[in-house]
Known about the structure:
Strand content: over 45%
Strand order of the largest sheet: 1-4-5-7-8-9-10-11
Radius of gyration: 21 Å
Shape: globular
Structural class: mainly beta
Amino acid sequence: MTRTATFAMTAIGLALAAPAAMAEPVAYEFDKDHTTIVASWDHMGFSRQAIEFTDYEGSLMLDMENPENSSIEVTFNLAGGGFWVGTPGDEQFENHLSSGDLLDVEAFPTATFTATSFETEDGKTGTMTGDLTLKGETHPVTLDVTLNKAAEARGSYKAGFSATGTMMRSDWGVDYAVPAVSDELQLMIETELVKVADDASE
Length: 202
């Protein structure tokens, strides 16, 4: 191959590669009608109980081709009924969860999760590790994540994920009734994220 031909082929290769190299993470938002964020625990060996976090906002920048370039930050508003205990009218339980024994929402009305790393070998399953700040304490949490489906749906592009993990609540100073009530919390997230329209930020 002549030097001119080699140069031409290299230029074409760079031109084809340029769009991928310049690709940036894309903004998504929670479809809250199809998102569930739950923490559950063992209650004295009798049963598993759970709370669902219902008041949250996220900054979600996803790169589906190169997940390591993604960034996720979610703020949970815990005060003012930011979670649901699954029993309508159970104000006593909600008040105890909000008290200094447990979440102490008066002093710490929010919690945040900031992703710090993403690992995947197949683009479908992997792990996401991030820093969870709760009651003024920050510690890492790792979630096993599965991309269930990414496709057009009702005029928008949507991605659905399942994630599970565990945390030891005493690490964040939430150690009331340990070990009778399990220290370990099981985390479960089912979410559908919707791609933000290109003209939304204009």
